[in-house]
Amino acid sequence: MKLRIFILLLAGMSLCSAPCRLPAQQEISGLQVQEEQVASAIDAAETARQNAAEAGAEWLQTNDLIRDAREAFGNGQWQLALSLAQQAERQGQLAVEQALRESVAWRERVVR
Amino acid sequence: MNMRNIIRLLSLGLCLSWPVYIFGSPEDDRIAFQAYFQARFPDVPISEYVNGIYALDENAREQWEQIEEFPPYEFAVENGELLFNRPFANGSTYSECFDNQGPGVRQLYPRFDAERGEVITLELAINLCREVNGESAYSYNSDELNSLSAYMAWTSRGNKIDVVIPNDPGALAAYESGKQFYYSKRGQLNFACSDCHVISAGLYVRADHLSASLGHPSHFPVYRSKFGKMISLHSRFYGCVRDVRAKPFEEQSVEYRNLEYFLTYMSNGLIVNGPGARK
C-alpha cells in the first residue's frame, strides 16, 4: 500500500514536472529581476541602437532583438527580456565603436 | 553633439593632420583602382571587367555564355521600350527629360545635379521625370522601373562610361562620402566592400567566387536567375550590406547614390553592357 502511494506520487511528480516547474522558475526569475531593471535595459538598448543608426552603422539584428525583448517583457519573461535587451545594447555600442574606428581607418584601405 | 557630428569631426581632424589623403583626386583614384586589377590579374584586359565574375572565372563563363544566347532580360528591354514611348497623361514623354531624347545616355549616370545639390541616378531621373509630368513615382524595385532602366542600358551598349565630377564642393563631397562608404567596414561581420571586391577578388567566400568592383555598374539592371527577375544595382548594394549583417539602406538612399557615384567613376572608360544576367 505504502509502495503504491509512493509510486503514484512519483508518477504525479514526473507528469507535473514539466508544466509545474516552468511557472515556478519564472517566478524565481521574476524575483531576481526587477521590473524597472528590464524596462531601463530596453530603454538603454533603444538609445544605443539610435546612436548606431545616427552614425549610419546600425547592425542587422539590433532592432529585432529589441522587439523580442519588448515582447518577452510583455509576456512576463523578464530574465529573457533582460538578456535580449543587453545583447541589443551591446550591439549598438559595438556598432558605434566600429563607426568611430572606421571614420579614420577606411583611408588606409583606399587603393592608391 | 550627436554621433554623426563627432564622426565628421574626427574624419576632418584626420584630413587636416594627413593632408596627403585629401589630395588624391577622383582621377588619381580611378587610375590607381584600374592599375590595381591590371597588376593583380595581368592576363585579364581591363575591358573584360564589365563581365563581373565571368572575367575571372573560366568555368562559370561558359555557362553564362550559354545563358546569354537566349538573354533572359530581353522581355524587360522590350517592355521598357513600350513604357518609354507611351505618353504620360499630360501628353509629354520620357524623351523630354533626357539628353538625346533618352536612348544611349546610360553612361552619363549617375550625374551630379548642382541645383539640387545631389547625385541623380538613372532610376531617380526616371522617377523625377514622372513626377514633373504629374505621374506617381515607381517603387524602386518594380518591374516597370527595372524595364525602363534595362531599355536605357540596352540602347547605350558599347558607350564608354563617362561619369563627371564637376569642380563643385557638393559633388566632391558626394564622391568622397561614396568612397568612404565603400572602404568602411560595417555590420556584425565587420567587412568593407573592398575586403571582398578588391582584396579578395578572384577568391572564394564559401561557395561564392568574388568579382572585382571594377566594372560592377556597367551591366545593371541584371536578370537574377535566383530570383527569376530583374534587379537594380542598389538592390545588389542592399544584399551585400545585409550579408555582412549591417542594416541595409533603402534603394536610392543618399548613401547608395553616393556609393554608385564613386563606384561608377572608378569604371569610367569601360563600356556599358547592360542589362546583364547573373546567377
Q: Which key phrases capture this entry?
A:
heterodimer, A: mainly alpha, 82% helix, B: 279 residues, mainly alpha, Cytochrome Bc1 Complex, Chain D, domain 2, 2 domains, two-stranded antiparallel sheet, 10 helices, globular
Please provide a written account of the structure.
The complex is a heterodimer of chains A (112) and B (279). Chain A is mostly helical and 112 residues long. Chain A is 82% helix and 0% strand. Chain A has one domain (2-16, 34-104). Chain A is built from four helices and no strands. In chain A, α2 runs antiparallel to α3 (62-74) and α3 packs antiparallel against α4 (78-105). Chain A is elongated. Residues 6-26 of chain A have low confidence and may be disordered. Chain B has two domains: 3-71 and 160-278, Cytochrome Bc1 Complex, Chain D, domain 2 (Orthogonal Bundle), CATH 1.10.760; 74-154, Cytochrome Bc1 Complex, Chain D, domain 2. Chain B has helices at residues 3-17, 26-40, 58-69, 74-85, 122-132, 143-154, 169-183, 193-199, 233-243, 254-266; strands at 111-113, 118-120, 204-205, 208-209, 222-224, 229-231, 276-278. In chain B, strands 6-5-7 form a three-stranded mixed beta sheet. A two-stranded antiparallel ribbon of chain B has the order 1-2. The A-B interface holds A 51-63, 91, 96, 98-100, 102-107, 109-112 and B 2-4, 6-8, 10-11, 14, 18, 21, 24, 28-29, 32-33, 36, 179-180, 183-188, 190, 192, 194, 198, 242, 245-248, 255.
Number of H/I helices of chain B: 10
Q: Which descriptor suits the 3D outline of chain A?
A: elongated
Number of strands of chain B: 7
Proportion of residues in extended strands of chain B: 5-15%
**Please, how many domains of chain A?**
1
Order of SSEs of chain A: HHHH
Mean pLDDT of chain A: 83
Number of separate domains of chain B: 2
The end-to-end distance of chain B, rounded to whole angstroms, is 46 Å
Helix content of chain B: 40-55%
CATH fold-level topology of the largest domain in chain B? Cytochrome Bc1 Complex, Chain D, domain 2
Extract low-pLDDT stretches of chain B: 15-21
CATH top level of the largest domain in chain B is Mainly Alpha
Number of strands of chain A: 0
Structural class per helix/strand content of chain B? mainly alpha
